Amino acid sequence: MKKTSVTALLTSTLLAGPALAQTTLTIESWRNDDLTIWQETIIPAFNAQHPDISVVFSPTAPAEYNAVLNSKLSAGSAGDLITCRPFDASLELFNQGHLTDLTDLAGMANFSDVAKSAWQTDDGAATFCVPMASVIHGFIYNADAFAALGIEEPKTEAEFYAALDKIKADGTYIPMAMGTNDQWEAATMGYNNIGPTYWKGEEGRRALIAGEQKLTDPQWVAPFEQLAKWKDYLGDGFEAQTYPDSQNLFTLGRAAIYPAGSWEISGFNAQADFKMGAFAPPVAAAGDTCYISDHTDIGIGMNAKSPNAEAAKVFLDWVASAEFATLYANALPGFFSLNSTPVQMEDPLAQEFVSWRGECEPTIRSTYQILSRGTPNLENETWNASANVIRGSETPADAAKRLQDGLASWYEPQK
Amino acid sequence: MAARKPVRWHIAVFLAPAVVIYTAIMIIPLIGTLNLSLFNKGADGVEFVGLSNFATLFGDPRWSASFWNALGNNAWFFFIHMLVQNPIGIALAAILSTPRLRMAAFYRTAIFIPTILSFVIVGFVWKLILSPIWGIAPGLLDLVGLKSLFAPWLGREDSALTTLALISVWQFVGIPMMLIYAALLSIPDEVLEAAEMDGITGISQFWKIKLPLILPSIGIISILTFVGNFNAFDLIYVAQGALAGPDFSTDILGTFLYRTFFGFQLQLGDPYMGSAIAGAMFGIILLGVCVYLFGIQTRLRRYQF
Predict the structure, then answer these.
(1) CB pairs under 8 A between A and B
(2) CA–CA dist A13, A5 (Å, integer)
């Protein structure tokens, strides 16, 4: 009996021998759509430089990711590298000691403060995830439809509604593909898409956090007033239209304009057989400064209990490099690198989106930092309010007042 | 006196498997949840707070508004089931048990099949059928010239919950049908023959003879429906998402519990308030079952054949 176990032990040591030199890192992620890109493009590129570290990309379904990750971390069975959601979800993990402080990682120098803000403590003292990518909001349109109807890319609100009216009058296309069934599009691709133009991006967002502006102020009600006008341009039965319905309506060529996030680009490229273009959220009057939501969306951090900390840091340093930025941005057009080094992208639609960074003032989604920390949750309430306003079951002023009351009920600076 | 009775070990042994499994997967988690609802995060870590989570749930205007909204929706969901599912189930069973009906086995199977389908499939299929864009419902209504009756039912606040309840009825109507069918088959022929001798046939035979005999089964079905409806979650989650839109008009206790306990999008999970909601659900179901057991079941007349 004893002899057998000794033999087994020896055998296992022998087997483990070569593996010792080979460290394996496991990445936890919600991006299950990206599995092949990691396996075929990103990991081989990393292994070309670091053949001694093998990397396994192990994604979970997006809706379950947060819950699954939390239980894995508590049980000590999570992977070495953790893909980070922006702001509070990751901050909570850091505060609980699940994520390592990466402030001193050499590669962090490649990122601006805005890029790092999504994965920092409130005072900015510690950064715990390497920023990977952001997504930009805007409108994608059917260029063939625009050409046929003789419509130019709208720059101002007036042009925007004139274009929508023209499409509606023609009747060939549904003017705008959006539904309110899933609610989040109304908030994310509606409210937070056009909103920064009215609350002046970072200026308004920071004033709201500081308690100097209220959600009932005109600049915060204005986006709701715009959304209320959208109702007339949506398709029949938009109340029951889901997110995939809207995507299909647009890629099948039945709708002309799609309020979008840049993450749609690769999917739309594969599905649509017409020419597409994109325009930034229209401004109130010609010549006004434009604002875009350039939202920090994905980062990657390190499990504090990882036994392979050295190897994990090597990998994170590589993720922070310009080489990774180029690989990632081109493999996944629409997920824009946050690296300070400019990245050359090939996809024309992605280029169009990223070109707005030069013309417009960037900001992030207003509800994500700090303001969604309490109950009621401002982000979730905004989904509900935006959908209500588009459906017309709540007036813009009422919706804004409800959000403000909810926020003021727990957020000190707004009391 | 005679020697003491021997200990009857076999009773414990035969009960053990069921008791152990039931305790491990039902009773312990239930007590754990109820226990968790008495705690919350305090200044320094998790601390015992007594019933203050329940005080928040019923006292805080926001929490209580959500709770009563969910409970009211749940009650409506249950009401539709009692009003539609069970009468239809009984009617179908009565038709199926008619000896002259041909292909009874086929109808029985066809009506029962949706019951074994996954909620995910049922929710998805019905969403497609009722979709204003791709659905066949608008087309079918158009064929009979009633296109104007069609509306995006799942997206309207006043119709979404009723529509979902009817989808659930469609899925589960097979269960009351089967139970009542079995009860109808167990009515002895002598009783029915005696009724025929007295001139009671057809419809009046159903009302006067069969219905009183299957009342206990109807009671059981009602309580099963009650427990099932107040534990419901899946169909709403699949069809409308965890935010139970539009504007929380389809939010029932199960989705409210899910959002609170596990969190949703930027909202972090709150297991303590979540447990309080679970505790309230347990209380509601317990109360309902007790009312039935002591108030109704004991008064039902039973007939021995």
Answers:
(1) 104
(2) 12
Question: CB-CB: which of B152, B240, B266 is closest to A379?
Answer: B266
Q: Kindly tell me if the per-residue pLDDT of B52 is higher than 50.
A: yes
Q: Which residue has the higher pLDDT, B296 or A178?
A: A178
B268 chain-A contacts, CB cut-off 8 A: 88-89, 92
CB contact under 8 A, A372 and B266: yes
Of A284, A46, A64, A41, give the one whose Cα is nearest residue A157. Answer: A284
Which CATH number does the domain A15-134+295-349 belong to among 1.20.1440.20, 3.40.1410.10, 1.10.10.10, 3.40.190.10? 3.40.190.10
pLDDT for the residue numbered A15: 44
**A212 CB-near residues (< 8 Å, 6+ apart):** none
% residues pLDDT > 90 (chain A): 69
Is the confidence at residue A1, as pLDDT, over 60? no
Q: Note whether A30 and A59 are within 8 A (CB).
A: yes
Evaluate whether residue B14 is within a structural domain. Answer: no
Average pLDDT, chain B: 91
Mean pLDDT to the nearest integer, A293-308:
92
Positive or negative: CA dihedral A227, A233, A236, A241: negative
The answer to whether residue A61 scores a pLDDT higher than 90 is no
CATH classification at residue B243: 1.10.3720.10
**B174 within some domain:** yes
Compute the distance between CA of residue A205 and CA of residue A195 in angstroms, rounded to an integer: 10
